[in-house]
Amino acid sequence: MKKFTLAALMAATAISFSAAAYAANQGGYTGPATNIITVEQIQGLNDDTFVILQGNITQALGDEMYVFSDGTGSVNIEIDDDDWNGLNVGPDDLVVIKGEIDKNGNVTEIEVDEVMMANPAQN
Predict the structure, then answer these.
(1) pTM attached to this predicted model
(2) Which of 2-6, 8-12, 21-25, 83-87 has the highest mean pLDDT?
(3) pLDDT digits over 55-83, tens only?
(4) Which of 93, 107, 86 is nearest to 54 (CA)?
(5) Considering only Cβ atoms within 10 Å of each terminal Cβ, which end of the chain, N or C, has fewer?
(6) Residues 6 or more apart from 119 whose CB is under 8 A from it?
(7) 107 vs 11: CA distance, rounded Å
């Protein structure tokens, strides 16, 4: 019985180590995103279109509203408090935002789902 218990314990340990090694070696694509668009380009897109933009959050407007600029133009963006993912961002920080276009008449805004720091290799 002790041999069976020892064998089972050794097998469980081996499986744990191999699972940890597998998880540690998990990776993914780290190159630039090819679907980043500009503020200028969003003007021709439909309401609720998913977009990825890279630029700077230049101003806080209050009530979770901000101004985002990428050199081609500026657009108001809405970032819910829980979508910051713990980031602290200033106007000089290059960020990537992911979200949906929100069109109300002639006003276009972005409802942000995720904010992240831009990869310096994407500059």
Answers:
(1) 0.70
(2) 83-87
(3) 999 999 999 999 999 999 999 999 999 99
(4) 93
(5) N
(6) 30, 32
(7) 62
Max distance between CA atoms of the chain, in angstroms, equals 77
Determine contact, residues 70/36, Cβ cutoff 8 Å.
Answer: no
With tokens 């309401």, the residue in question is 47
Rg (CA), the chain: 22
Domains of the chain in start order, with CATH, are 36-122 (2.40.50.200)
Query: Please, are residues 100 and 110 in contact by the beta-carbon 8 Å criterion?
Result: yes
Confidence label for 41 from pLDDT (cuts 50, 70 and 90): very high
Query: Which residue has tokens 């933009």?
Result: 53
Per-residue model confidence (pLDDT) at position 60 = 97
